[in-house]
Request: fold
Amino acid sequence: MNLRFAVVVATVALALFAFACTAETNIVSPDQEAPGITVSGSGSVFGEPDVAVVTLGVEAQAATVGEARTQAAERMDAMLQALKDGGVADDDIQTTRFSVQPQYDFVDGRQELRGFLVNNVATVKVREIDDTGDLIDGALAAGGDLSRVASLAFTIDDPSALEEEARTKAVQDARARAETLAEAAGVELGDARSIIESRAPVVPVGFAREELAQAGDVASPIELGELEVQVDVQVVYGLE
Reply:
């Protein structure tokens, strides 16, 4: 390497090193989060259900698939017709299960086909909720011994008005909690900076299958009760 060129390179390197040592490097720290109070609030209201949701159908067993299916179809048609005659709309009836399953016996350690089991199940919305008991009884009578009721539940078709009321109560509850904390801490509460909402789904009131079983001509007793609509919020309040 040429001596003069080496001296020039060394000089430039020293100059860059000196510049790096003398230049200012400013690291700006982010501002700390403004002080505040984070609280949770809950609000709930109760309302009467206005829709009954019934899951019912038929179960038929026969030696052949065709025979079992025919029995199930006839009884299911009769049940659905009874519901429609009682005022249930076609749009409120939906088939939710249809299955064909072989049935076996075990004889001398061997599996022998006994027949076939056909299940046909529908979910029905009853909007004239006071007629629920009569509609179930009519459907069971039409289905005869093949009829089954899997479940019955009550719900609220449009809970939006109840949710608004529960939401207001939840925010009021959060504000009351924040004011209590601020007073205890000797600070003054400011405005809300953020609100996060969570809603619990409206849980239908259900009845177990055995509660629906009635003998003879005794009508099925149906009690509606009330449903709870709940809203929870998390609120961050500033401090003044």
In short: The CA atoms of residues 36 and 238 lie 4 Å apart. The helical segments are 3-22, 65-85, 132-143, 160-185, 209-212. Residues 1-32, 207-216 have pLDDT under 50 and may be disordered.
